[in-house]
From TrEMBL:
GO cellular component annotations of the record: nucleus
Identification of the protein by name: GZF1 protein
Source organism of this protein record: Psophia crepitans (common trumpeter)
Main location: nucleus
Subcellular location: Nucleus
Keywords on record: DNA-binding, Metal-binding, Nucleus, Repeat, Transcription, Transcription regulation, Zinc, Zinc-finger
Superkingdom of this protein's organism: Eukaryota
Record's keyword annotation contains Nucleus: yes
């Protein structure tokens, strides 16, 4: 009798794998690549695992797949024009899928992601920049609306007074009993004459 297939899937395994690889890198265990980073005279070396770098960066994948294996047990990779702090943040991201950086470094992280062809970091930077832009636009919109409401509230009393004055001025000629009545021939005929109800009491 044939049994049905079932799926065994761990939700925590990817996170555990990343955490374990991160710990191994921090302790320097099983690392098989040294990345030397130099920018404007500042230089630093980082040890890492080829498999992790190759899986997260097409740049490193191409380097490792094309190497001839003549550097001994540990491969050396040299990176110029990459700041030490930025590469440290890049490594933390590829080993943990998250990294905390200052807002003004987001653009630099996007640049290093594009340089090292790291799609995950690139997409993360794009999303964060989009959120930051939307936040700024929302603040500008709220500020603009508050300015408009302040201007409207400051201008509203004079508008109300003007409209009341216009209403009073417009109402006087029609409803003032002291106005001399015109002859019926002089009045414009528009179908409904406002003076007709007033004329009936006069006839009585």
């Amino acid at each position: 009798m044939e049994s049905n297939a079932v799926l065994l899937e761990s939700k925590s395994s990817p996170i555990n794998l990343l955490n374990e690889m991160h710990q191994l890198r921090l302790l320097g265990h099983l690392c098989d690549v040294t990345v030397s980073v130099e920018y404007q005279g500042v230089r630093a070396e980082f040890v890492a695992h080829k498999a992790v770098l190759a899986a997260t960066s097409k740049f490193f994948k191409e380097v490792f797949l094309n190497e001839k294996g003549m550097d001994g047990p540990r491969t050396n990779v040299f990176l110029n024009e990459v700041q030490v702090a930025d590469f440290a943040s890049f490594l933390e991201f590829v080993y943990t899928a998250k990294v905390e950086v200052e807002e003004d470094r987001v653009q630099r992280m996007l640049e290093i992601a594009e340089k090292l062809k790291c799609l995950d970091l690139s997409e993360t930077c794009f999303q964060l920049k989009k959120q930051m832009l939307e936040s700024v636009l929302l603040e500008l919109q709220n500020f603009s609306e508050s300015q408009n409401s302040e201007e409207e509230s400051a201008a509203q009393p004079s508008v109300v007074l003007e409209s009341k004055a216009a209403a009073v001025a417009g109402a006087d000629p029609a409803h003032c009993p002291l106005d001399p009545p015109d002859s019926p021939a002089d009045r414009p005929s528009n179908g409904t004459s406002p003076e007709v109800p007033a004329a009936k009491p006069k006839e009585k």
